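Sample intake — Sporulation protein YqfC
Collected from: Paenibacillus foliorum
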Amino acid sequence: MRSLTKRLNQFTAKLLDLPQDVALDLPRMTMIGNLQLYIENHRGVLHFSSERLLLALPKGKLEVQGTQLVIRAILTEEVFIEGIIGEIKFYS
């Protein structure tokens, strides 16, 4: 059933010319080098330290590991972090 729903959402996104991140409720990430990361469509900060950020997503979690991490801005569905980003992991 999930596979059918996913395919239907992808078809609808293509038909209406919508970005897939919007149609499939996925995070959108913009990274500048390994120093800045902007993440849209998150559901909250689960953990934050200068070495690790864990975000809740609509379908899973996103983990950012690095050093000297700092949250520069945080909004309801957006977060902007700076520091030396070493790894980004997605858990569904």
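Post-analysis note: The CA atoms of residues 22 and 71 lie 24 Å apart.
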